[in-house]
Amino acid sequence: MTRIPNEFRVVGIIGLAKNTGKTTTLNWLIKHHKNESIGLTSIGLDGEPMDQIHFLPKPRIKVCQGMVIATAQSCLDESLIDYDVISKTNLFTSIGEILIVKIKGEGYLVIAGPTTNDELSKVLKMMKNHATRIFVDGAFNRMTFSNLDEIDGIILATGASVSPVMEETVEKTRRIVDLFHLDETTDQIINKQAKIVFVTDHDEHVIYDKKISSIEHALNHLQDIQKIIIKGAISENVIDCLINSRKSNYELVGEDPSRFIFQSSKLKYLEHLNVHLSVLKSLKLLFVTMNPYRPTHQSYDPIKFMKALKHHIQSDIIDVMREE
Fold first, then answer.
1. pTM for this prediction
2. Domains: count for the chain
3. Same domain for 303 and 177?
């Protein structure tokens, strides 16, 4: 796959760890969609170390004439690229207001977009008036694209930086990819104020907070739990609480696959308890990109890494590092 189908207008790119080739993936995507009107933004600052001279994140992304960019004012001030301001967003980061601009030249630019999902949603709605395809640079280990109707598809970047042991990287990538194949439940949280809903054989028990004490009380006193629906973030403490209760044979429902991502290492314990995961809303994983190289220490053999990923993962795998 060298070009993403038209129905995936807004695509989020997330990296399994730092230095997995997320920026290379973005540059590769831009090259393969250069005949379209491309928009580009990010959620929060890039996950890479800060530039100690300019106090801006790196690496930079190559932008071309006609692209529509949403980034902080300071990033534009530090660049040598000419641009026209399309609109001000009245949304501010620690390094300035986020502006939506149209690029007049070519060069490299730091993208520092909105810091929350609500702000990102507003920016994407504004950008859709000026771009036909929008790529969102996501910090996988900090933010998610949860509950964003604007995101049509996800691309996952994995690589040798995840672990020095290739088999561990392949296994972790497999677990994350499997989350995007979770069943979509027909249930909905009718009570808008509810944070957690426990569904039993005879009733529904609603919790309006996510305090561990509240969850423990429900787990200790409710019988025949068939389903637990959790709205919003599913923290590690919540997962630990469910595991420690030893409750088994129920369905755990999150809002979308990204809600389970940070607990992927503990999903095996839920599997042992026969806990079935599902989501209120699915997210389409378009493909996985791989980076066999590490900035420090030994890299993977790219051919062996590709074969291992293809053998264990139900998704298309693209070596964008080699193509670049």
1. 0.83
2. 2
3. yes
